[in-house]
Automatic annotation (TrEMBL):
Pfam families: Trypsin. Keywords: Disulfide bond. PANTHER family: ACROSIN-RELATED (PTHR24252), OVOCHYMASE 1 (PTHR24252:SF18). The keyword Disulfide bond applies. One of its GO terms (biological process) is proteolysis. It comes from Chaetops frenatus. One of its GO terms (molecular function) is serine-type endopeptidase activity. This is OVCH2 protein. Gene3D superfamilies: Trypsin-like serine proteases. InterPro entries: Peptidase_S1_PA, Peptidase_S1_PA_chymotrypsin, Trypsin_dom. The gene is Ovch2. Residues 1-106 form the Peptidase S1 domain.
Length: 106
């Protein structure tokens, strides 16, 4: 994989990467990305994917790519959850999930 050149391991800013596949992938549906000038509205639903730990407290992620629909959170609300970690949530990040509730997040 190729990490974003500005990825910061401390703050996790620019945490995105490109995957290079060993063989061609059967392509069926494209991803619809917002225009650069489009503002993603809080409470809008988005689809997130990743190999993160499927349950809180687990160290290892899943071998299979996971997918989840979650609501987008406003930046200030998201930052308030990380108040003790300054610069943890930046304007380049998208915060989504179900904070302070039972449920899955990203």
């Amino acid at each position: 994989y190729i990490k974003h050149p500005r990825f910061n391991e401390t703050t996790l800013d620019s945490a995105i990467a490109l995957l290079q596949l060993a063989e061609p992938l059967g392509f069926s549906l494209s991803v619809c990305l917002p225009a650069e000038e489009e503002v993603l509205q809080p409470s809008s639903t988005c689809v997130v994917t990743g190999w993160g730990a499927p349950e809180a407290g687990m160290q290892k992620g899943d071998k299979n790519l996971q997918q989840l629909e979650v609501p987008i959170l406003a930046l200030d609300i998201c930052q308030s959850y990380y108040i003790n970690l300054p610069n943890k949530v930046t304007r380049r990040m998208l915060c989504a999930g179900f904070p302070l509730e039972e449920g899955e997040d990203s």
